[in-house]
Amino acid sequence: MAMKLVNSKAEETDVLIVVTHLEYVNAFPPYFAREKLGIALEAIAIEKGEAWIIDCEGRTRVLIEPN
Question: What three-state secondary structure class fits 9?
C-alpha cells in the first residue's frame, strides 16, 4: 500500500512525507530502496517513533535523530 501511494505521487512532487502506523511501513525503507533505487540496504526497519529521509537522487537514507 505504501508503494502504491509513492508511485501515485512520484511524478507530481519533489518531496513526499508518509506518516502511518508502524505495522504498515516498518519494512518499507529496504523494500523501497531495492524496488525504486536498485540498491540494497542493510537489514533495517523503521522502529516505533523513528523517521527517515530517503534521498532518491543521492540514493541515501538518513535517520532523523530526536533532539
Answer: helix
